[in-house]
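Renewal narrative, Specific Aim 1. Our central claim is that a sequence can be written position by position from structural information alone. The example that follows is taken directly from our test logs and has not been curated for this report. It begins with the structure tokens describing the chain, in the order in which they were read.
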């Protein structure tokens, strides 16, 4: 089969770096571009970090296109996760950053252009707030017919969030954009904390990456700060592989248990960012806001150890 044409919408980020370098080592995908967005770091830093990761992978031919600096409402990121990923996004290792420039245009324009150029072939792996994807849908309302699918890292459906008990960080970053995506994309697959919290890379596995493949030592080094965060907050000798789990869902969806249903996101108030799925277990009497929305696929089960082994293999080739 031909490789999946993949756009990675990203905010690197330690776990984004895991996913991106693993993707470059995966023959099942052809990375046609990276688009940047705020989240773990501000958008401008996300752009620079994405360019640096492409250079590290020896793929300076892959375009990096800068995305939105603000949410659909025009709000700046409320909280940058430097306490999770370090002030540089690379676990405060301060690596030499590549000097290349982003490709012209906006992230939303790039997504539309690639989907139009390769109808039915492009998968968007959305690893941060969904602002860029929502803006692309505004630019081209026929985009759902052109994209193969969008795989979203986000949401918490049967578990607590990680920003607060209600919300997962990426959805919290722009809940309005998430509602646009979930309401307009029937070909949407959602990988949230329900499954990423079952995909843990242990301290032993992290340190075991050193010297393996082209990027094992780099990934081991940047993950130490991320590991310290997990020790302090979760009290565990392991890290959650959020972004790399979403990459695994692109290539190995068979490792996940998918449940279809309409999804709405709470846009305001103390539960801002909460994702609520219609489980489809009854016929509702009277109208509600979930009716008429597409049934997106939500991952609620995962073969976690197999995902971790797959990701470790791809990161250290």
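The sequence written for that structure reads:
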């Amino acid at each position: 089969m031909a490789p999946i044409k993949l756009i990675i919408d990203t905010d690197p980020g330690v776990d984004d770096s895991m996913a991106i370098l693993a993707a470059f080592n995966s023959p099942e995908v052809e990375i046609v571009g990276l688009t940047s967005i705020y989240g773990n770091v501000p958008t401008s830093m996300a752009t620079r970090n994405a360019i640096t990761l492409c250079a590290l992978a020896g793929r300076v031919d892959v375009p990096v296109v800068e995305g939105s600096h603000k949410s659909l409402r025009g709000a700046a990121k409320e909280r940058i996760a430097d306490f999770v990923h370090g002030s540089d996004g690379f676990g405060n290792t301060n690596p030499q950053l590549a000097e290349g420039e982003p490709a012209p245009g906006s992230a939303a324009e790039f997504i539309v252009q690639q989907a139009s150029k390769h109808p039915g072939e492009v998968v968007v792996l959305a690893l941060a707030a969904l602002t860029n994807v929502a803006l692309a849908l505004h630019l081209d309302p026929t985009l759902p017919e052109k994209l193969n699918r969008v795989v979203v890292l986000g949401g918490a459906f049967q578990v607590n969030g990680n920003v607060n008990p209600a919300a997962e960080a990426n959805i919290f970053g722009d809940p309005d954009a998430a509602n646009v995506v979930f309401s307009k994309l029937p070909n949407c697959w959602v990988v949230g904390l329900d499954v990423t919290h079952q995909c843990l890379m242990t301290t032993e596995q992290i340190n075991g990456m050193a010297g393996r493949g082209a990027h094992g030592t780099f990934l081991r080094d940047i993950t130490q700060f991320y590991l310290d965060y997990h020790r302090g907050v979760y009290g565990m000798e392991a890290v959650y592989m959020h972004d790399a789990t979403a990459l695994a869902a692109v290539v190995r969806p068979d490792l996940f248990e998918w449940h279809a249903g309409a999804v709405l996101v709470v846009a305001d108030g103390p539960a801002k960012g909460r994702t609520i799925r219609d489980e489809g277990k009854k016929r509702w009497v009277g109208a509600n806001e979930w009716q008429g929305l597409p049934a997106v696929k939500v991952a609620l089960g995962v073969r976690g150890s197999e995902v971790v082994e797959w990701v470790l293999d791809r990161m250290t080739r």
